[in-house]
Design brief:
Blueprint lengths: L6 E4 L2 E4 H14 L9 E3 L1 E16 L3 E5 L4 E6 L6 E2 L4 E5 L2 H26 L3 H43 L4 E2 L7 E2 L6 H25 L8 H30 L6 H51 L3 H26 L2 E3 L4 E6 L6 E2 L4 E7 L4 E7 H4 L7 E6 L3 E13 L4 E3 L2 E10 L11 E18 L4 E3 L2 E7 L6 E11 L4 E6 L6 E3 L2
Antiparallel strand pairs: 1-2, 3-25, 4-15, 4-20, 5-14, 6-8, 6-13, 7-12, 8-11, 9-10, 12-14, 15-19, 16-17, 16-20, 17-19, 18-19, 20-24, 21-22, 22-23, 23-24
Helix pairs in contact: 2-6, 2-7, 3-4, 3-5, 3-6, 4-5, 5-6
């Protein structure tokens, strides 16, 4: 049998009888007592910690990208990625044979000028004048021999260039010496085909011009004519070298040659390139030899002039200036040579190396990256609202996202920037921390979660900060005064306000007091 609900009706509102009864019971049970207790907190002793939490990035204590101040071709690589290096250790060198020769020449000039000064100071003997005349004659003959040698070197260079074009790479073309040479094989890259055909025409033109220039030349031609021919020969060889490089590209891009034919063509090109490169070096060496010997002749003549004239105070002073200038020239040559050597500015580890021997590197292009040895650091940015809480020497606990919260490291604040850095419209201050210990887990670039300890009080009374009511300079809490839940506001004196949500109570409460808590 279904029980009927009893309703009270008042002003058109139906009220269930059960709700009315429950209300009456609650009134008689609690209506005469104090207010019902809310959430509470028992005052106790413990630790109050004030920390500033920031996120930063792990960086090495030293980090640098090293580059050459002058461009050049990599001659030697002494280290690889991951290698440990010491301060001053040689990492890379550029091809510096010409600069080494200049240094040696400059140092020899210093020695010569110093010897000249010594002779001036001692005075000149007849025997010495005779010796110096012989030295002048020998220097002049050596120079004349160097000039005469240009003729043979140029003719040999021309023969090797002609062989490279007509013999070593001749089978590559039909109508090779015409303005419209045609390749004897197919190339998959149209641009490579255009390049090699154009350069073949240029090579033919260069050989023709070169042959015409050599026709009237003789070993006893005027020195100026021989020097001009030497420079022109180097220019001609440069064009032939470019052509041979393009020919190799063409062979490598062929689409119908057999492997055996490709191997033969490549071997022929290499023979031609080696001969042409050797010829280019020979011309360059001859030019250097003439320049060096010209200086020797001039120095010998100068010395003979000094010997014949005898020594005066003015001459000695002038020779002292020559010595100083020679030393300055030697220092300059040494500085140029030093720029071809890349050395480690500090001890550390090589982290990046994208070059191989033979690569051409431009000036100021990063060649090798290096990080310093020692403890890693953390760079973080502290908001202006918290920067007053951070000081150099503060300790910190650190976790790295890569390893989770279970792996904790310690660090110390070592530097705080004095100028602000605006990030996302907020003024921040760059703060640098250093890890206390070295650890293989710590790697550059890792994200670090940092808690910087500002202050800590131990065994002090504390209450939740949210439960403190502050008006002006007065702080109060709602103290529960009896078992009925009666409360009253009592003033307290606070101490350290922790970042953990608790605040130290200096006076006004005792351990075991109960307060109303939100």
């Amino acid at each position: 049998m279904q029980r009927k609900k009893v309703w009270w009706k008042r002003k058109g509102i139906m009220i269930p009888l059960g709700i009315v009864v429950l209300g009456l019971v609650a009134f008689f049970l609690f209506g005469k007592k104090g207010p019902a207790l809310q959430n509470t907190f028992t005052v106790k002793k413990g630790e109050v910690v004030s920390e500033v939490s920031v996120t930063g990035t792990v960086v090495p204590v030293q980090n640098i990208d090293l580059a050459f101040s002058e461009g050049g071709r990599i001659n030697h690589i002494y280290v690889g990625v991951g290698d440990k290096v010491t301060e001053g250790e040689t990492l890379l060198t550029l091809d510096n044979s010409d600069l080494s020769a200049q240094v040696a020449q400059a140092e020899a000039n210093v020695a010569t000028q110093q010897a000249n000064l010594a002779n001036l100071e001692q005075g000149t003997r007849p025997e010495q004048i005779q010796v110096q005349r012989a030295a002048v004659a020998k220097a002049q003959q050596d120079l004349q021999n160097d000039y005469a040698g240009i003729f043979d070197i140029l003719n040999d260079a021309y023969a090797k260039a002609d062989d490279a074009v007509h013999n070593q790479t001749g089978p590559f073309f039909t109508n090779g010496d015409t303005p419209s040479p045609q390749l004897t094989f197919q190339i998959s890259d149209p641009q490579v085909q255009v390049n090699v055909v154009n350069l073949r025409v240029q090579a033919t033109n260069e050989l023709n011009k070169w042959k015409a220039e050599l026709a009237p030349l003789a070993s006893d031609s005027a020195t100026g004519t021989l020097l001009a021919a030497l420079d022109q020969g180097q220019a001609h060889l440069s064009v032939i070298r470019s052509y041979l490089g393009s020919a190799l590209d063409a062979v490598n891009s062929n689409s119908n040659l057999s492997d055996a034919t490709v191997a033969t063509y490549r071997a022929n090109i290499n023979v031609g390139r080696t001969n042409v490169n050797n010829s280019y070096t020979a011309l360059s060496d001859q030019e250097q030899a003439i320049a060096s010997q010209s200086i020797t002749v001039q120095q010998a003549n100068d010395q003979l002039t000094l010997d014949l004239a005898g020594s005066t105070s003015d001459q000695i002073a002038a020779q002292e200036a020559q010595v100083a200038q020679a030393k300055a020239n030697a220092s300059y040559a040494e500085s140029l040579l030093a720029k071809t050597v890349l050395r480690a500015p500090f001890s550390g580890t090589v982290t990046k190396m994208n070059l191989v021997k033979g690569d051409v590197v431009a000036a100021n292009d990063p060649a090798v990256s290096l990080i310093g040895s020692g403890k890693f650091e953390i760079e973080a940015y502290v908001a202006e609202s918290d920067i007053a809480k951070v000081a150099i020497g503060d300790t910190a606990t650190v976790t790295l996202d890569a390893y989770g919260n279970g792996v904790v490291f310690t660090a110390k604040v070592i530097k705080i920037d004095l100028s602000e850095t605006v990030l996302d419209g907020v003024a921040t201050y760059k703060t640098t921390l250093q890890f206390d210990t070295e650890d293989q887990k710590i790697l550059p670039g890792l994200t670090a979660n940092v808690d910087i300890l500002n202050a800590k009080e131990e065994s002090v009374l504390y209450v939740p900060t949210r439960d403190i009511n502050t008006e002006g300079s007065t702080s109060t809490v709602s103290l529960v005064t009896d078992a009925k839940g009666t409360t009253k506001n009592v003033p307290i004196q606070t101490g350290l306000r922790g970042s953990d949500g608790n605040t130290e109570v200096v006076s006004g409460l005792n351990e075991g007091n109960v307060i109303i808590s939100d």
